[in-house]
Input
Amino acid sequence: MIGQSNSKSSQERNEAEGCQHLVSPSLEENIHSVKRTFEACDDVVYHDTEFNNSSACLIYLYEMVHNETMVEIESGLSSYTATGDVKQSMSSFISKRFSYSKIKETNTIQSIAEEIVSGNTVLLIDGIDVVYVFHSSNPIGRSIGEPNTERTVRGPREGFVEDIQQNLKLIRRKIKTPSLKVESLVLGKETNTQINIVYIKGTADDEVVQEVRQRLSRIKIDGILESHYVESMIKDSPKSPFPTILSTERPDRVCGSLLDGKVAILVDGTPFVMTVPTMFVEFLHSSEDYYDGSLIATIIRWVRFLGLFVTLILPAFYIGMTTFHQDLLQTPLLIRIAASRSALPYPVLVEAIFMLITFELIREAGIRMPKTFGGSIVTLLGLVLIGQAAVQAGIIGPVLMIVVSVTALTSFILPNYDFHQIIRFCGIPLLLMAGLFGFMGIIIVLMFGLAHLVSLRSFGVPYFSPVSPARKEGWKDVFIRAPWWAMETRAPGLGVENINRSGNENMAKPKVNKGDHDEE
Output
């Protein structure tokens, strides 16, 4: 067994070394090396061709190339006529004849394999030790549409898709400046997933950009299929349940973060783009806040704060009130609650846990339910049959049913899905402590939770900024949404190089009557 293991590892090492060796002038030897790399890959096409009395071979993956591009490549090569040095003449001809497409040269078998699996076409020519790569990948995937998790009433309707090039195009279309920098790298030993680091030079902090580069370069994994693979490996405090990296499907929100001096991380194969650094208050903000009036946006933000408070506190508050602090209730209400619970077999804490588990089961069933059946079946079974039947059967109280239903409904007010999930489950320890110690248990959990939030950082930026440490100039976009003419500076605490917004001196401010100046 040891001999077999050593033999197998030696064979794998030899194959890896074979992929690294340079391209040979011999066409037959190069094709043999490529075939050895793609052994048992029946979808790789080796198209032998000949032009100008030279043998050549086009190699590509059949299902990943664009047919029209392949026809144009073959027709273009047929018009080639050698003059002087063959290698120099060929390079000059290809750069002129195929200027419409991305053409590059490579000279290793490994790079040939990477280009083929990326959907490109490689051209091997006998007598030339250089391989020409044609960008011929056939774009696949869904078309650009409205994001499913971050819908708004006013604002752009386009959302990111799974193609990283399309996502980068959506960002470039909104931020039209050469200061927008894009750095590419490949992660994942087997998937070779493309990653893009996007930031605005002169606005983003250079130290944050360098930190993003270093954290990404330390990732060693066999494959990356979604952005959360990357997020879990570069986030601060990986054991914390709170997200310290914001993921969004909206290009306008990513562009807004870039203009604030943040860094965006795009991962090929997923519609979710990450932005860093991230602060806690951002998870309570929506891109629609910046498209509505200041007063309306501020009121809606306070509604979200109320929704956060209700989602966290309401079930625990009801448990603590009915279990330990009945004297705080008015007598008529206390009598009604006591009458409704007189025939119930279980304590209110057990009923609440049962209801929360039931809600999670119904919610998960609604997500996994085939679209053919629709969501009406889940609503009918969950809310009408199960809920009403449980109340009539005397298993749960009607007041608790109202409390849990209101809590479940208000949890969807939170605009970010990751944050919504965490807050929903953070109510469970509050519920348990309220059932054991009353309001004192709620206060203890909230104090520990607040201390944990204050201690967190996101790429060097305090997670609870600008509330802690307090930065009053940043409160214009936290508790309220000030008018654009009043937000003359970017979010403080991010370390941005240009704290003042570009052209802020030209921003239109409300006109003041001459009489007002006289009074002052």
User: Anything to note?
Assistant: Residues 1-19, 503-512, 514-520 have pLDDT under 50 and may be disordered. Residues 96 and 253 are 40 Å apart (CA to CA). DSSP finds 17 helices and twelve strands in the chain. The chain has three domains: 2-134, 164-278, 294-462.
